């Protein structure tokens, strides 16, 4: 292969094959982008990782904890040394509350510093992979965590404004200081920032985008929250008591600056509204779709949404509603929906994910025309390792089919049943007992006939329910179940299994490598799967007409299966507000399942309930919904 020398900036020369394309000249890319070399349309690793500049600054943010002193937000930076003073670079940022608490990624990596306080280990692979390709990587400690001042705020203004201040500084509109207090300018930055992160990190990206801050060009929220109400609540049903303060206390673990945040934590406990489950001003502050301070109409950055369809931690409502609202605002967007739970695609589709993410950042931050914007916007894993692409989501062929409930336990298109059906509330009813085939006085169960053809459920099912009870406060739990044996992604470990083999994604130093354990999918044969769950609080005795929204999904139901709806007062996943043996009576004439489905409806008429082996469900069939979880790794 023949090589030629490419002039990079004014003082750097790199040998490169003639077949490669160099971007950086005015004819190839805008002049505010750094010189890069393209291989197969993507930036190649031409800058030295070991020799990269590593530095820490503390970005000034407004007083966010009410102590009268501006905050200092710890910001760790790594950027190509060869370009220092020669070219400005775009930034990939992961802002997080977890860098010194629970750590990041499947291997729970934490930031590590030498004796002088210099960062020597960046968690995750973003620095190793992208810095050699001409990007800076910035890891931000959210206010109240790690080496930043302030107090944590479970998605409130302190969280978001602390990270926003860093984006503004990178865009030339802020002040930062080094460890000695000297002012530091981001003169190496071209002002283009892309935020990425999983769970709380991705949630910060959503929130900062919803401020409309200049300089934020794209975000990649993975398993992220778009409304903290929809994380802590479900139609008035409460996840757990005092969760905001508990989470805020947890993420502040191991912080290096002793701070009394008791006032903030007490405020959360007094205002989180656990007693009613209502959407209040407290939650409006933490709503990035349509909140008091932040909302989707302000979003200027493009958005690449990534979510697991079996995520029972940050449930799919946070992604589906964000996606829909972004579309209504005309925001440039892309989406991946995997079949796993709360899992980063780096740990499920590693090679494909890194390649896709690389192309996305090249396009959004380097202005490289690599065609990713002309590919189908949505990729969905509808069954284990079965991917479908579409320009929109839910898919355009999905139509809402109405299935009516009948007193004989069937569920069908067309004919309504004018009678009623009842169950006796049991707050201790397990999900396993609720979904089993057979009579159970503590829940109602309705099944379709056997499907004659494969169908695809795509979107958000709802159950219109006309129900009466005599409790001061009642509750309903609804499950949509696919009955039929097949290979599925297990719920154990969110469907992911860490292997003994490793793969490496970039160069390394003695203290920071880019090698990570491979992760496989846990696939096992199960007799059933809960496709969607939903809950609703019913205030006051008497009759209630409620539409219970279930979690969005996109999944294949094979021929020969039956779909079921299970209605109970089960507390699985939320707190029980009715613990008595209250009778709940459902008026079947006013109750129906609204199912977004693509495919022939044959088999959705009356059918016989076929016996199924649901007595001894295999491990991994159902998740532990009552386990304490954080929106974390």
Q: Short summary of the structure?
A:
By secondary structure, this protein is of the alpha+beta class. The chain has a 12-stranded mixed β-sheet with strand order 13-12-6-7-11-8-14-15-18-19-20-21, sandwiched between helices. Strands 22, 23, 24, 26, 27, 32, 33, 35 and 36 form a 9-stranded antiparallel β-sheet that branches.
Question: Would you write up a description of this structure?
Answer:
The protein has 633 residues and is α+β, with helices and mostly antiparallel strands. Helices cover 14% and strands 35% of the residues. The chain has 10 helices and 36 strands. The strands form 8 sheets. A 12-stranded mixed β-sheet has the order 13-12-6-7-11-8-14-15-18-19-20-21, sandwiched between helices. Strand 16 and strand 17 (237-238) form a beta hairpin. Helix 5 (243-251) runs antiparallel to helix 6 (262-271). The radius of gyration is 26 Å and the shape is globular. The relative contact order is 0.13.
């Amino acid at each position: 292969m023949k090589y030629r020398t490419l002039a990079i900036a004014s003082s750097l020369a790199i040998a490169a094959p003639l077949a490669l394309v160099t971007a950086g000249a005015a004819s190839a890319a805008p002049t505010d982008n750094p010189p890069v070399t393209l291989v197969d349309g993507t930036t190649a690793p031409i800058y030295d990782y070991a020799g990269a500049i590593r530095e820490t600054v503390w970005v000034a943010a407004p007083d966010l904890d009410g102590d009268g002193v501006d905050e200092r937000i710890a910001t760790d930076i790594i950027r190509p040394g060869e370009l220092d003073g020669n070219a400005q670079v775009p930034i990939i940022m992961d802002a997080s509350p977890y860098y010194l608490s629970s750590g990041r990624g499947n291997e729970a990596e934490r930031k590590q510093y030498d004796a002088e306080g210099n960062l020597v280990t960046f968690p995750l692979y973003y620095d190793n992979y992208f810095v050699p390709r001409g990007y800076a990587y910035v890891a931000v400690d959210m206010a109240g965590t790690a080496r930043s001042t302030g107090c944590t705020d479970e998605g409130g203004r302190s969280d978001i404004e602390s990270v926003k201040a860093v984006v503004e500084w990178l865009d030339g509109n802020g002040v930062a200081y080094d460890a000695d207090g000297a002012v530091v300018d981001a003169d190496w930055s071209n002002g283009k920032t892309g935020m990425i992160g999983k769970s709380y990190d991705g949630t910060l990206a959503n929130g900062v985008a919803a401020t409309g801050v200049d300089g934020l060009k794209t975000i990649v929220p993975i398993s992220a929250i778009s409304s903290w109400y929809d994380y802590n609540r479900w139609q008035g049903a409460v996840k757990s008591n005092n969760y905001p303060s508990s989470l805020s206390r947890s993420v502040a673990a191991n912080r290096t600056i002793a701070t009394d945040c008791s006032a903030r934590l007490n405020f959360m406990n007094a205002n989180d509204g656990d007693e009613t489950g209502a959407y209040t001003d407290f939650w409006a502050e933490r709503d990035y779709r349509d909140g008091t301070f932040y909302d989707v109409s302000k979003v200027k950055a493009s958005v690449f949404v990534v979510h697991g369809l079996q995520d029972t931690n940050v449930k799919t409502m946070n992604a589906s509603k964000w996606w829909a609202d972004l579309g209504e605002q005309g925001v440039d967007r892309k989406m991946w929906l995997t079949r796993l739970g709360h899992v980063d695609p780096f740990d499920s589709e590693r090679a494909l994910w890194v390649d896709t993410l690389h192309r996305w950042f090249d396009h959004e931050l380097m202005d490289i025309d690599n065609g990713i914007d002309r590919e189908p916007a949505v990729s969905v894993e509808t069954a284990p390792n079965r991917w479908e692409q579409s320009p929109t989501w839910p898919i355009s062929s999905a139509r809402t089919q109405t299935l009516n409930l009948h007193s004989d336990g069937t569920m069908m298109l067309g004919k309504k049943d004018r009678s009623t059906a009842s169950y006796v509330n049991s707050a201790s009813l397990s999900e396993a007992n609720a979904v089993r085939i057979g009579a159970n006085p503590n829940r109602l169960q309705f099944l379709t006939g056997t499907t004659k053809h494969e169908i695809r459920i795509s979107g958000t099912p709802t159950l219109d329910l006309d129900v009466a009870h005599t409790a001061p406060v009642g509750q309903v739990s609804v499950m949509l179940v696919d009955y039929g044996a097949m290979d599925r992604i297990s719920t154990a470990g969110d469907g992911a299994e860490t292997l003994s083999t490793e793969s490496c994604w970039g160069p390394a130093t003695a203290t920071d490598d880019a090698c990570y354990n491979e992760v496989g999918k846990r696939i096992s044969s199960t007799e059933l799967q809960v496709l969607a769950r939903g809950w609703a609080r019913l205030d006051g005795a008497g009759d209630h007409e409620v539409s219970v929204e279930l979690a969005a999904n996109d999944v294949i139901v094979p021929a020969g299966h039956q779909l079921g709806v299970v209605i109970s007062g089960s507390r699985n996943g939320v707190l029980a507000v009715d613990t008595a043996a209250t009778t709940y009576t459902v008026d079947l004439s006013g109750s129906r399942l609204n199912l977004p489905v693509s495919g022939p409806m044959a088999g959705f008429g009356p059918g016989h309930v076929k016996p199924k082996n649901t007595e001894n469900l295999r491990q991994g069939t159902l998740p532990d919904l009552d386990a304490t979880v954080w929106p974390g790794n």
